[in-house]
Amino acid sequence: MAHPSAFFDGEPEQAVVNPENEELLPDHVRSAADESWLTPDDDRYFGETFPTVVADLEAEGDLDRRNTHAGIRWFYAGEESPQHGMGLRTIDDRTIRLRDRLRGETIATLPFGDALRDVHPDAIYHHQGRTYEVADLDLDRSRAMLESTAATHYTRALTDKGVTVEDDLAESTLELEPEPDGKANGEDHGDDRSDGRDSPALPIRFATVTLRERIGSYMRYDGPDDDGTEVLLDEPLPETRLRTKALYFTIPPAIEAAVRAASDREAGFAGAIHAVEHALISLFPLELLCDRRDIGGLSTPLHPHTGRSTVFVYDGYPGGVGLARGGYEDLEAMLGRTRELLHSCPCESGCPACVQSPHCGNANRPLDKGLARVLLDELAGEGD
């Protein structure tokens, strides 16, 4: 551990929940009504959308409305137990069974999206100390046929990803700290800076977004030192969509120009924002009670919604569970810790302890740790 004091002396991680998750709320209301009747006052537990959810469930025949001497009551009207119809491990309604072809038994089940990533054709899959190779992925039958193997290579799916902003829910601006001599905020030039830079402010937003992903290839690695070979699938796998919550921020044009000027590589700036995205996500488990895989991200030099270079960090679960909201509310401090991480990590060009991610759908390409430091220094008002 490079920073033991941060672990032993720091504040414990915050537990976050989202009781108003629109994907989970209908099932939660059904389950609650099955346990005991509901009243209009129960919106204090289920949030502002409770009346709408109750009205929809009543129209669908899942709730029975009764007028009693004590007021309106709703009772569960379904035939089956709603609690047993809910999964504890995933919100995804569709799962894929993993079958050991030689043993003729199911060894595991995966949510549909996870299965596309982990058991695509020819993927290497590890389960309870055994190594399997995927012989066939039959989506019509919701099963993957696996065969035990002694193969020493491993695979990682590559994804094409896009984010559509559906609704901006909140926005704010982080005022960037000026350099001690005042040059970073252009106080010598007033609001119209002679160097062409915008005012040192970082606009951030919290939004409902739709994530689209499609897997068309994977990387094959024949050892820890292998750079990997991209292998195309015979056919791209179906596109998946995730409607969730995200925080996102745009890079001010003047800072983008400064980062681009610091590199002679065409992909330098893209590598910088990609590295910042990875490093920022890696710190979420230190602030919020979650796993790194619970959060995803996307960085792009130009996004159609903003018209600028943009970094997205999103909840990896339908409807969002509160992680992106927590990051949005504490982004200034998290960016500061991200900058500290990149400056303190002793590696030269990036490693798993700072900017490389084991979950990256682009095989950690491109990444530029040095330019990421330049970017974060500029955001902190301490650029050259």
Question: Which features would summarize this protein structure in a list?
Answer:
384 residues, Arc Repressor Mutant, subunit A, 3 domains, six-stranded antiparallel sheet, 11 helices, globular
Overall description:
The chain is of the alpha+beta class and 384 residues long. The protein has 3 domains: 61 residues, Arc Repressor Mutant, subunit A; 63 residues; 222 residues, no CATH class. It has 11 helices and 13 strands. Strands 8, 9, 10, 11, 12 and 13 form a 6-stranded antiparallel β-sheet that branches. The longest helix has 15 residues. About 5% of the residues have low confidence.
Characterize this entry briefly.
This protein has 384 residues and is α+β, with helices and mostly antiparallel strands. The protein has helices at 4-8, 25-35, 43-46, 50-60, 112-118, 253-261, 268-282, 284-287, 323-329, 331-344, 369-379, and strands at residues 63-68, 71-76, 95-100, 105-111, 124-127, 130-138, 143-148, 154-175, 201-221, 229-232, 240-250, 295-300, 310-315.
Strand and helix map with partners:
Layout: H1 4-8, H2 25-35, H3 43-46, H4 50-60, E1 63-68, E2 71-76, E3 95-100, E4 105-111, H5 112-118, E5 124-127, E6 130-138, E7 143-148, E8 154-175, E9 201-221, E10 229-232, E11 240-250, H6 253-261, H7 268-282, H8 284-287, E12 295-300, E13 310-315, H9 323-329, H10 331-344, H11 369-379
Helix pairs in contact: 2-4, 6-11, 7-11, 10-11
How would you classify the quaternary structure?
A: single chain
Low-confidence stretches: 179-199
What does the average pLDDT come to?
90
Number of helices: 11
Please summarize the sheet with the most strands.
Answer: 6 strands, antiparallel
**Could you tell me the number of beta strands?**
13
Assign a percent range to the helix content.
25-40%
Write down the domain tally: 3
